[in-house]
């Protein structure tokens, strides 16, 4: 089954108002900028977005927030070098925030993909982030129960992709994407290069195609930091 898509708009056409969306990336590393901007063109509203941060500058997730598409952010770092899009709306009460420690965020996403409803971690115990959450003592140490995270759609960025959806990633751009691909009902990836079946050594496949519903080729993807430095805005 060939999962190649002809356009970015096809890849994001499954996103509807009120959905929960996972977006890969650690800052700009691995951020699927072209997919995000294609989603902005379609303007779904009331989204819950799960990402490592809450956007930067006026592109990517920050641009989604500026277009009033995001109802809630679940992230580890709501502030970055230029967080004004999120900060202004948060202070105005126009967007919700759930802060999750970075390791816990990764594990909650992994748990969602693995079918594990909850787990215990010492991270956040004794802080405001643990308020109202169940707590247990194990071997003399207190732990906080955290629930899995799942999504309706994941948008991720790969390096190589074949017609069956098998993916590789470029260095640190891998970050959250493999976990998110497993935790979403549908996953759509942009890849820098589409290759033929068999061109990717099976031992090099990071995300098997069973977790990918569609991929689109973006031969020269934009980098968030370069766009911000150039003063870019989207749309």
Task: Reconstruct the topology from this structure.
Layout: H1 8-12, E1 20-23, H2 33-42, E2 47-50, H3 60-66, E3 70-75, H4 84-91, E4 96-99, H5 102-114, E5 118-121, E6 135-138, E7 141-147, E8 151-161, H6 177-183, E9 184-194, E10 214-217, H7 224-229
Parallel strand pairs: 1-2, 1-8, 2-3, 3-4, 8-9, 9-10
Antiparallel strand pairs: 5-7, 6-7
Helix pairs in contact: 2-3, 3-4, 5-6
What multimeric state do the chains show?
A: single chain
Order of helices and strands: HEHEHEHEHEEEEHEEH
Compute the number of helices: 7
Low-confidence runs: none
Q: How do the strands of the widest beta sheet line up side by side?
A: 4-3-2-1-8-9-10
Percent of residues in beta strands:
25-35%
Q: What composes the largest sheet?
A: 7 strands, parallel
**Number of structurally distinct domains:** 1
Rounded mean pLDDT score: 97
Q: Which architecture would the CATH scheme give at its second level?
A: 3-Layer(aba) Sandwich
**Computed CA radius of gyration, to the nearest angstrom:** 18 Å
So what's the overall shape?
globular
Helix share bin: 10-25%
- CATH level 4 superfamily: Glutaconate Coenzyme A-transferase
Short description, anyone?
The protein has helices spanning 8-12, 33-42, 60-66, 84-91, 102-114, 177-183, 224-229, and strands spanning 20-23, 47-50, 70-75, 96-99, 118-121, 135-138, 141-147, 151-161, 184-194, 214-217. It is an alpha/beta fold and 235 residues long.
Task: Describe the protein's architecture and organization.
There is one protein chain. The chain has 235 residues and is an alpha/beta fold. The protein has one domain: Glutaconate Coenzyme A-transferase (3-Layer(aba) Sandwich), CATH 3.40.1080.10. It contains seven helices and ten strands. Helix 2 packs parallel to helix 3 and helix 5 packs across helix 6. The model has no long low-confidence stretch (mean pLDDT 97).
């Amino acid at each position: 089954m060939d999962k190649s898509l002809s356009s970015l708009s096809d890849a994001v056409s499954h996103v509807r108002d009120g959905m929960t969306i996972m977006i890969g990336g650690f800052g700009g590393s691995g951020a699927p900028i072209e997919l995000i901007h294609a989603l902005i063109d379609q303007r779904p509203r009331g989204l819950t977005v799960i990402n490592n941060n809450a956007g930067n500058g006026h592109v990517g997730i920050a641009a989604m927030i500026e277009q009033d598409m995001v109802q809630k952010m679940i992230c580890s770092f709501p502030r970055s070098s230029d967080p004004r899009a999120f900060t202004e709306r948060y202070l105005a009460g126009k967007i919700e925030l759930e802060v999750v420690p970075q390791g816990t965020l990764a594990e909650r996403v992994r748990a969602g993909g693995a079918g594990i409803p909850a787990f215990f971690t010492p991270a956040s115990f004794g802080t405001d982030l643990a308020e109202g959450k169940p707590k247990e003592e194990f071997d003399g140490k207190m732990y906080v129960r955290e629930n899995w995270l799942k999504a309706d759609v994941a948008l991720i960025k790969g390096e190589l992709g074949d017609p069956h959806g098998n993916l590789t990633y470029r260095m640190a751009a891998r970050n959250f994407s493999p976990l998110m691909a497993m935790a979403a009902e549908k996953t759509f990836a942009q890849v820098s290069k589409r290759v033929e079946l068999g061109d990717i050594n099976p031992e090099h496949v990071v995300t098997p195609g069973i977790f990918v519903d569609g991929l689109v080729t973006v031969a020269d993807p934009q980098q968030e930091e370069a766009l911000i430095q150039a003063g870019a805005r989207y749309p």
